[in-house]
Amino acid sequence: MEDKLMLMIPGPTPVPEQVLLAMAKHPIGHRSGDFSKIMAEVTENLKWLHQTKNDVLSLTVSGTGAMEAAIINFLSPGDRVLVGSNGKFGERWVEVAKAYGLNVDTIAAEWGQTLNPEKFRESLEHDTNKAIKAVIVTHSETSTGVLNDLETINRAVKAHGEALIIVDTVTSLGAYNVPVDAWGLDVVASGSQKGYMVPPGLGFVTVNARAWQAYTTAKLPRYYLDLGKYRKDAAKNTTPFTPPVNMFFALQVALRMMQAEGLENIFARHQRLSAATRAAVKALGMPLLAPDTAASPAITSVIPDRVDAEQIRAVMKKRFDIILAGGQDHLKGKIFRIGHLGFVSDRDILTAIGALEATLQELGYEGFTAGAGVAAAAKVIATM
What is the model's pTM? Predict the structure, then answer.
């Protein structure tokens, strides 16, 4: 059957019909008064979502582009930075920092384990000369489903007094409470195809006063990703370069939907979906990669020890039109990942788990009682 595809991956995430319909409208001039009105509304609602009064800048990039902009606008060649790396995206920020000639110290953990905040604290306390200019952290590590303890790491950065904290919230913003102003986060990056419920194409960067001060002396090369240009034009409700106009139509509608649901309800829904998914997988007798104490609200990584991960994904797609994510790098073929981020409901989780049970039966997996996964998920949904 056509048009029944169900995305259960960490991005792109499902897009609401009214958001898709907004994109189908005829484009308008991006220098017009009508577009400026949309830009003004979108910017105000982005500040609401980020829980900030700081600048929230919209770029025509993916989440990686937003993070690259977050890194290069506030640093100079040779600057020392600490980068947390416990998955694919932590490793990516190490690569970006090195590509721009930064002096990188990596604080690492095994994939599936959390970054240790104590290691950040120790490194920052030993930096008596204040040589460390920035700490770069992935909040929700998409490749593993681990949620790092951003709040505690940030406290260590604030105690240092000089270093900026630059945060990848690509799969946490809009799914988990990230109070930018309350925590004093300096630079925060995210992407439209995740919790925002919009297709890929827009990246967002928040910048506070401390970071803007660093911007004035930063010397890394930048042009299209020069956030100073975006800040100047955002004050006039416009953009320095041609934006994807129809994406702003979509974002306008999506942010209105998020406001109607409310931040606390959004966070509670993602927590419920994560808990239900994890309970279901445990009931099916399959190990989880991330510990319960550090489970991402966006994605659950499963280690199917008695059945092939890629076979599961293939049957889920062929038989049920449900797309699950695979493992990356050395976890390729060893895990599959169930996304529950953005426009995902309780019904979607029950549907996916039911299909997963049918898939496991088809593949001859005998490590569970039929119906156990759906029952476990339903129990969590009924009580949260």
Answer: 0.97
**Domain assignments of the chain as residue spans, ordered by start:** 17-259, 262-383
Tell me which fold the domain 262-383 belongs to: Aspartate Aminotransferase, domain 1 (3.90.1150)
Q: What is the pLDDT of residues 111-163, one digit of tens each?
A: 999 999 999 999 999 999 999 999 999 999 999 999 999 999 999 999 999 99
One-letter identity of residue 360: L
DSSP 3-state assignment of 108? strand
Euclidean distance between CA atoms 105 and 135, whole angstroms: 10
Q: What stretches of the chain adopt beta strand conformation (E)?
A: 6-8, 55-59, 80-85, 103-108, 132-138, 140-141, 146-147, 164-168, 187-191, 203-207, 299-302, 322-326, 336-339
Q: Which tens digit of pLDDT belongs to each residue from 244-276?
A: 999 999 999 999 999 999 999 999 999 999 999
Known binding-site positions for substrate: 337
89 in Cβ contact with 253 (< 8 Å): no
pLDDT in tens, 1-41: 788 999 999 999 999 999 999 999 999 999 999 999 999 99
DSSP character at residue 308: -
The sign of the torsion formed by the CA atoms of 61, 65, 70, 74 equals negative
Residues tagged in the binding site annotation: 337
Residue 255's pLDDT is what?
Answer: 98
Structure tokens at 19: 């958001």
Helices (DSSP H) in 130-177: which residue ranges? Answer: 150-160
Report the Cα 137 to chain-centroid distance in Å. 12
CATH topology of domain 17-259: Aspartate Aminotransferase; domain 2 (3.40.640)
Contact call for residues 97 and 74 (beta carbons, < 8 A)? no
Locate 167 and state its tokens: 């945060």
